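Inverse folding, one chain.
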């Protein structure tokens, strides 16, 4: 059973004017698709054929001899999670149990925003910024390249891609503006809230 490029959860122009359909045509149609194609080639005929993305990621994380398999599997997973971490009319503040837990664990929503912006802006080179549940507490984490908190025991709730191809066509080198836009207009808090509820 080979992996397939999962459909976007919205139309390719649904995130405009914040993320353009042009960006999604490259990011989803070219980059994400290439990770799927590469992964299928790498696992064909191996013990990983037929396993889930999560199983492959956990089995290959930190193993330099399997870096190619890990990188492509994790990037397929990370990108799929990222598309769901955004929605039209997103952003702003969450509500309900997620909002309460953010205040409990960060001190205030504003302190969470500050931590998320700092993590995104200070991730050197390519990588990801995450809101995760780790040991029962919400934290903001950043990972390099294809790394994912899922492989070391955390539960991802929301992610923001800070690889340049995620934002360069729309924001050029202004990563802080992209981060601000993600939080203000794109973050899918309902998705994050469901992930938190499912982890309980």
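Residues assigned per position:
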């Amino acid at each position: 059973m080979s992996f397939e490029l999962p459909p976007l959860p919205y139309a390719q122009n649904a995130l405009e004017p914040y993320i353009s359909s042009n960006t999604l045509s490259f990011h989803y149609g070219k980059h994400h698709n290439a990770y799927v194609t590469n992964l299928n080639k790498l696992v064909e005929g191996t013990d990983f054929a037929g396993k889930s993305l999560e199983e492959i990621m956990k089995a290959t994380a930190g193993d330099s001899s399997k870096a190619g398999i890990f990188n492509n599997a994790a990037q397929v997973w990370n990108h799929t999670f990222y598309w769901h971490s955004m929605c039209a009319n997103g952003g702003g503040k969450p509500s309900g149990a997620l909002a309460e837990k953010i205040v409990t664990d960060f001190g205030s929503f504003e302190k969470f925003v500050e931590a998320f912006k700092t993590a995104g802006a200070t991730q050197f080179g390519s990588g990801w910024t995450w809101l995760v549940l780790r040991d029962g507490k919400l934290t903001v984490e950043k990972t390099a390249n294809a790394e994912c908190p899922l492989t070391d025991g955390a539960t991802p709730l929301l992610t923001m891609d800070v690889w340049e191809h995620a934002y360069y066509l729309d924001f050029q080198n202004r990563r802080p503006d992209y981060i601000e836009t993600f939080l203000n207009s794109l973050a899918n808090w309902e998705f994050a809230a469901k992930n938190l509820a499912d982890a309980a």
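The chain has two domains: 21-84, 96-199. The helical segments are 21-43, 53-60, 67-84, 96-106, 109-122, 168-171, 175-186, 189-199.
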